Amino acid sequence: MSISKKYVPALGADYSGKMKSRYAEKVKPSGKIYTKADRRDNRVTDNMTEESQQEINKGISFQGRCLCGSVRFEIKGELRPVINCHCGQCLHTHGHYAAYTAVEKKYMKFVDDNGLKWFRSSNEARRGFCQECGASLFFEHLGGSTISIAAGMLDFSEGLKTVEHIFFDDKPDYYEIDDDLPKHSQYHKKVLEGDPLE
């Protein structure tokens, strides 16, 4: 018994002719080079409420890393909105004010923590950094249920928004903040009750 060749259904001449003419018409390019900002502007977000955006965040998996990749992590859970901290510790740790989001520790896991080192910055907290590239990644209250993450370490941060400033009275004179976000002299627990940052 001979081995039969792979069966290929024959198309009728009429059908083939229609398909050829259909795809013979090429789409003319507009000449516009689309940027990442253009694609972002084309999304439909007018009817997106804050609650629905948070629901989307719950289903998103976030990845993050330091500059050299010696510390890499993954988050599967809701991220807190970003809070800008102007305290002296953040200024000396990051070289500027710090923008932190946060998540429940149970929703975060390390893919690689070979470069991770912790510095006990106070009696109540510690800060995580990469010993290889020096990136400042985390702030953690000792015994707390959440970990704060420097928002710039996330590979994908769509949906996150900055909502307020804390320790604003400690801000140095070399930069100005002109936005309309709330500005607090100390830590303000309005965003997620019981979620410590400083």
What fold name stands as the CATH topology of the domain at 61-198?
Metal Binding Protein, Guanine Nucleotide Exchange Factor, Chain A
Ranges with pLDDT <50 over ≥5 residues?
22-30, 39-48, 190-198
- The strands making up the biggest β-sheet line up spatially as 6-7-8-9-4-3-10
Give the helix tally: 4
What is the CATH C level class of the domain at 61-198, in words? Mainly Beta
Describe what you observe in this structure:
- This protein is 17% helix and 26% strand.
- It is α+β, with helices and mostly antiparallel strands and 198 residues long.
- It has a domain at 61-198: Metal Binding Protein, Guanine Nucleotide Exchange Factor, Chain A (Beta Complex).
- A 7-stranded mixed β-sheet has the order 6-7-8-9-4-3-10. A 3-stranded antiparallel β-sheet has the order 1-2-5, with no helix packed on it.
- Strand 8 and strand 9 form a beta hairpin.
- 24% of the residues are buried.
Sum up the structure in keywords:
198 residues; alpha+beta; Metal Binding Protein, Guanine Nucleotide Exchange Factor, Chain A; 7-stranded mixed beta sheet; 3-stranded antiparallel beta sheet; 4 helices; globular
